Amino acid sequence: MTEVPAGPGGMTGGLLLDNAGDLGELMVIKVAVHGVLGRMGQEVLSAVCREPDLTPVGGADATAESGTLPLPDGSGAVPLSSALADIAGPADVVVDFTNADGAMAAMRTASALKTNLVVGSTGLSEDNLREAGALADQHGVGIFIAPNFALGAVVMVHLAKLAAPFFDYADLTEMHHEAKIDAPSGTALAIAAAVAEGKGGEFTSNVAEKKTLEGTRGGVFKGINIHSARMPGRVAHHELVFGTLGQTLTLRHDSINRESFMPGVVMAVRHVVKNPGLTVGLENILGL
User: Fold this and answer.
1) Where are the chain's structural domains?
2) How far apart are CA 54 and CA 272, in angstroms?
3) What pLDDT is stored for residue 25 in this prediction?
4) Residue 182, SS3?
5) Cα 113 to Cα 56, 81, 91, distances in angstroms
6) Residue 177: phi, psi to the nearest 5?
7) Does domain 2-145+259-286 have CATH number 3.10.450.50?
């Protein structure tokens, strides 16, 4: 992180309270984006440009040709490469939005360079998470992984866990854009896991006596039927319907655009530079 010198009267370009509660110097966090040419990568780059305590220092993308990348706010350009190793070194944090394989490669590369990581790529396995924890401990860096950075989605998971013990049935539908490569979504799996944990057992899953079309009831996780929809015009939508005798309860969260994920990403960037080790889930920042 880079210290921004105080200006006249001790003021900086932004206000930051130190541990004593007095005005201190603004600590600028240098951020590189992995998957920078993708839709989420571009959104992250824009968000970094907007924050006074964050500054972009580079971008990497498998499809990139080495050179420079103009910043979306017109303030200049940053180095661009197809290799993360070329731009991760000068950064305090790498933000990864690629895929599971890309995220694992980013964790191995950046952690070895003593650079912290925020990972928004989904599809990571339990083995991947164990490796992430080992890499963080081995290299003394922070690695933050979340299946969803929308604050409302994280709150939905929390509420679903609280409601689960009072219902017998649960159907979960997730809807995303047509380019999403994994189904069900990481958020849907996180919702299902939280709901099963909250209930302390399995839900009742209705099995149709006659299946006229195989797969109509979706996948089943501990009695929770999970359905995935993919088509253009959508970003990320999750709807959970609980059912019991004579009543239902519906919880739904919609991300209307990719900007909805940016407050969570920025929170994670600020968190990871101060917290070595592996952190999984934005709820650990929100205190849920």
Assistant:
1) 2-145+259-286, 151-256
2) 13
3) 65
4) coil
5) 17, 16, 9
6) -65, 160
7) no
* Residue 171, both tokens: 């159907």
Task: Name the residues annotated as catalytic.
Answer: 176, 180
Give CA–CA dist 164/78, Å, rounded: 47
Does domain 151-256 correspond to CATH entry 3.30.360.10?
A: yes
Task: Pick the closest to residue 94 from 60, 69, 129 (CA basis).
Answer: 60
Q: What share of the chain is helix, strand, coil (3-state, %, to 5)?
A: 35, 30, 40
* Average confidence (pLDDT) per 10 residues, the chain, 288 residues: 41 35 68 96 97 97 94 95 96 96 97 97 92 98 95 95 98 95 90 96 91 91 97 95 98 95 97 97 91
Strands (E), the chain: 2-4, 16-17, 23-24, 26-34, 54-60, 67-70, 77-81, 93-96, 116-119, 142-145, 169-176, 219-221, 224-230, 236-244, 247-255, 277-280
Tokens encoding 66: 């080495």
Classify the C-alpha dihedral 257-259-262-264 as positive or negative: negative
* CB-CB neighbours of 44 under 10 Å: 30
Is the distance from CB of 266 to CB of 54 less than 8 angstroms?
Answer: yes
Cα dist. 120→11, 101, 138, 222, 251 in Å?
Answer: 34, 12, 22, 26, 23
Q: What is the pLDDT of residue 16?
A: 38
d(CA 257, CA 112): 34
Work out the number of other CB atoms within 10 angstroms of the CB of residue 248.
11
Structure-token pair, residue 94: 């790498």
